[in-house]
């Protein structure tokens, strides 16, 4: 039976309208004022916004799967439940192969992990952690299998490739109009600085950000931009965290390079004083790039406001404090890098962006949904409430208040970096392809997520 959402305000990245929305099966079939019941099940959503399901374009739900204490605390099952409960209806997870394995094998294993096990829709960025003729040949096949975006690393010794390899991969991906995201940090410099601090016996979490200062990121961003200029590929910078990196991006845009920039909630609402929390709790915030200064945070908010930053995703990569983060108790460089966040992004950005007046709700929709869908070949199936699109709809109640806490979260991890932070607004109900899958922060229909096959769109 069809569903009629009546009395809400539909919001897109451009405008808001007081209209009713009819859903039939998996799709939105009618939008208009005062729609007749016509046998539909009517849901009164007055007082609420109807938002396109949020898309998180950067999660690591299954990093190091099977590698014991280093495998992420969440998996597809728990991470996707936490996502959808709060309004994220699609994740683009980082499929990360092990050394020596093919991209195709990695795709098969990620499908096995996700299939029947995800409560939101999903697709992947395929990570390229080494470069050879076999992997080069696979690029086209992976794109034909519906994965149109890739990720490479300039840091982490187990994941990074050389500049030459990045250039070759870019040239290959560019031929097919695919999208390549890069983790921008100068890996050599990070290694040097870790060695320097460790040698001096400076082993507390306090030293983590000092091994990855803003210049380490900005240099890598600048280098990536120059390599991409040579390869004639649009640039996609993931988890950008500093003012200096944004300045490098601006220089590239002035010379007419196409640059997409992602930042994450942690860089907007947390800062680097947290590394000095007592009792080793600074380890909870160890991620790369690290949390930054208040000054960087202001520059990032400005970038979000003025459009220098295109999207906000989470880089969700959860490790428990007890038993995982504590592996680095005597050496910060052994602390697994990453923080949870797939659950909290919508409420954080609504609270600290929209209700503070920094950004409009329309802008938030661009940052968390529509512009992500456009960038990653999901639009208009995802990212917008319009006739013919998937009925991924968040019924957003702007009047609720809450407090983020590990004791109430759905993420399967023993802490949250946002503990005690107050929130305003939340998802009252979440529809995934027409099915109500969450209500008042609880999942009511599990594992309804499906793989989204993407086709390259040359319009981005
Ligand atoms: O610390 C982080 N961000 N861990 C996840 C992997 C990455 O760098 O994206
Ligand atoms: Zn990264
Ligand atoms: Zn400190
Ligand atoms: Zn990441």
From TrEMBL:
Q: In its keyword annotation, does this UniProt entry include Hydrolase?
A: yes
Q: In its UniProt entry, what is this protein called?
A: Dihydropyrimidinase
Q: Which GO terms describe its cellular component?
A: cytosol
Q: Which residues form the Amidohydrolase-related domain?
A: 49-436
InterPro entries for the chain: Amidohydro-rel, Hydantoinase/dihydroPyrase, Metal-dep_hydrolase_composite, Metal_Hydrolase, Metallo-dep_Hydrolases_sf
- CDD domains, per database record: D-HYD (cd01314)
- Which Pfam families does this one have? Amidohydro_1
Q: Which residues carry this modification: N6-carboxylysine?
A: 151
Q: How is it modified after translation?
A: Carbamylation allows a single lysine to coordinate two divalent metal cations.
| Family membership | Belongs to the metallo-dependent hydrolases superfamily. Hydantoinase/dihydropyrimidinase family.
Cofactor(s) the record lists:
Zn(2+)
What keywords are assigned to this protein? Hydrolase, Metal-binding
A single MF term (Gene Ontology):
hydrolase activity, acting on carbon-nitrogen (but not peptide) bonds, in cyclic amides
- Top-level division of the source organism's lineage: Bacteria
Q: What Gene3D superfamilies does this protein's entry cite?
A: Metal-dependent hydrolases, Urease, subunit C, domain 1
